[in-house]
Amino acid sequence: MYFYAHRLGRKTVRLSATAPLREVRPGVFHATVRLPFARPKRQTAVTYCYREPSPDAFGPLDPLAKRCGSDPLRLPDD
């Protein structure tokens, strides 16, 4: 799993941390990282993603899935 900690409103963000997904119980996964925050803290946003090899029963791939893990990452416009 890839994590990007950034200031609110940024469109290009830098990779902050990565962590493996651990299966806690069937269908429930967990990842833990420590991330930096912007000052003031309330202006910090966290974007996370993981690479999904192909579409599954939950729907089509997220637009970020193809670029997930790249540094820097360009966020889609809202």
Keywords:
78 residues, mainly beta, three-stranded antiparallel β-sheet, two-stranded antiparallel sheet
Topology overview:
Blueprint: E1 2-7, E2 12-13, E3 17-18, E4 22-25, E5 28-30, E6 44-49, E7 73-74
Antiparallel strand pairs: 1-3, 1-6, 2-7, 4-5
Overall description:
The protein has 78 residues and is mainly beta. It has strands at 2-7, 12-13, 17-18, 22-25, 28-30, 44-49, 73-74. The strands form three sheets. Strands 3-1-6 form a three-stranded antiparallel sheet, with no helix packed on it. It has a two-stranded antiparallel ribbon with strand order 2-7. Strands 4-5 form a two-stranded antiparallel sheet. The radius of gyration is 14 Å and the shape is globular.
Work out the strand percent.
25-35%
Terminus-to-terminus distance: 22 Å
Count of helical segments?
0
Low-confidence stretches: none
* Global Rg: 14 Å
Q: Main beta sheet, described?
A: 3 strands, antiparallel
Biggest sheet: strand arrangement: 3-1-6
- Quick one: overall form? globular
Give the strand tally: 7
Helix/strand-derived class? Answer: mainly beta
What is the domain tally? 1
Overall helicity: under 10%
The average pLDDT is: 88
Helix and strand run: EEEEEEE
Describe the structure in brief.
The protein has a three-stranded antiparallel sheet with strand order 3-1-6, with no helix packed on it. Strands 2-7 form a two-stranded antiparallel sheet.
